[in-house]
Write a structure and sequence with these properties.
The complex is a heterodimer of chains A (about 260) and B (about 270).
Chain A: H1 2-30, H2 46-86, H3 90-99, H4 101-104, H5 107-118, H6 122-125, H7 128-153, H8 156-165, H9 170-199, H10 202-207, H11 215-225, H12 228-260
Helix pairs in contact in A: 1-12, 2-7, 2-9, 2-11, 2-12, 7-9, 7-12, 8-9, 9-12, 11-12
Chain B: H1 3-10, H2 12-33, H3 42-48, H4 50-83, H5 89-97, H6 104-115, H7 120-124, H8 135-158, H9 163-171, H10 176-205, H11 208-213, H12 220-229, H13 234-258
Helix pairs in contact in B: 2-13, 4-8, 4-10, 6-8, 8-10, 9-10, 10-13, 12-13
The chains are: A mainly alpha (about 260), B mainly alpha (about 270).
Chain lengths: ~260, ~270
Amino acid sequence: MRIGKALQLAVTLLAAAFLLVPTIQSVLAGVTVNYFQGIRSGLTLDWIAVVWGLYASSIFLSLGIALACLCVTLVIGVPAAYALARNPGRLSRAVEEFISLPLAIPGLALALALLQLYGSYKGFRMSWTFILVGHVLYTLPFMVRSVQSVLAAIDLKTLEEGAATLGAGPARRFVDVVVPNALPGILAGALTVVTLSIGEFNLTWMLHTPFLKTLPVGLADSYASMRLEIASAYTLIFFVMIVPLLLAMQWASARAQQITK
Amino acid sequence: MSSRQFVALCLVPLAIFALTFLALPLVRLVLASGEGEAGWGIYWQILHTPRYLTTLVQTVLVSVSVTTAALAVSTTAGLFLTRNRFRGRAVLLSILTLPLAFPGVVVGFMIILLGGRQGLFNTIFPGHVVFAYSIFGLFLGYLYFSIPRVLLTVMAAAEKIDPALEEAARTLGAPPHRVLRDVLIPALAPALVAAGAIAFATAMGAFGTAFTLATNIDVLPMVIYTEFTLSANIAMAAALSVLLGIVTWGMLFLARSFSGSTIAAGG
């Protein structure tokens, strides 16, 4: 048993090292004067500045798209989740299954489908809203599921009946009863949407234009054509943005899940 | 407005969006696959053109090996982390789930940092160990993003196993490998199937990681990409996409029927 446990620990540590070591390397390489010579060549923030000069517009574009994506998924997703939670049944499950297709079908295939149908509408194709559509497709199921699971766990019917006897119409009940009760789910969904949108590459690579490069598209560009220090510094900036979001997302999801238990 | 009408109204934005940007494009994609010279025979052509067939086989082989490796590593780590409480456990768990938010391209770069020309291994043993752009590098990249996904599914299931079952087996004199084989694996089986299906589907469809690493390796997403951009063979790109979509959707459907929810995101 002792040997077994030691072996399990070894596998766990090895896996953690496999995941962690390259991230540390990339952080170090991003602030090292010359990575080939190692840390001895000195530490610098110059590479970060170079990345900022080259890719600041990509970073802002990604933040903008993520926020727009959040707004759209809120407007479409929260009412839809409410409607689905109000009518649990086979039809609702089919709708949920259908809008979840973008999680099951690779982004590349979805992007090809969008390009086939809308690629010839140049005004739409060349604008940032084309990328936004891809991001909404991919993140919407997360918002719907997150809100829906919280709403399914509370006694929506009794709450709404209470409000209705006090004279609140359906719209009023949605705003004053449903939304406040769904907030933990909305928060978890919102953080998931923003985190995934900022990191989305598979759809975006096909949908972007040379004038509209998002953060991950810029990353791919830097991996292919820039020196290792610049690629690393850019990755470092990405980590600084995405890791707090990921931690917040995990916290909010755990909190929302406690309600559904 | 009645309550019923209001609830129906709530679904309108979703219906418009899903119809315009999901249903119609997917129909268009399927139709486009039949618009080439070969017509619907294009699917027959995939199976009779050595290049596409080799690609299919190679993609399936890589995905199967990644799935097996990820299941082995993540089940071991997941069982260890659920059954032991120690200092640093939370940190270890964070490290093991961190890559969930990494896009595939970043995962590819992580492998370049390990096995590229300026990578860790080539720095320690100069001149010999560049594996980032080989099929082994691709395997490691896929493993990188599969470990966290499998780990979370396995841990969620492992936490539900009654420790009394294991204790009972041990009191009855079962050695550790029998406890594993007769108690733990059967209890975890649905989660393992689900996690395996998720890992397989994600590996099959992974574009970002392949885009960074597989410049010389034919895996399905890369072949779809080159058919579309370089050869402008739209029908073939569409047909291969339809095929890929059906396989990944089928696998995830299988996963969902074995376990409640699935965590999938593109690699």
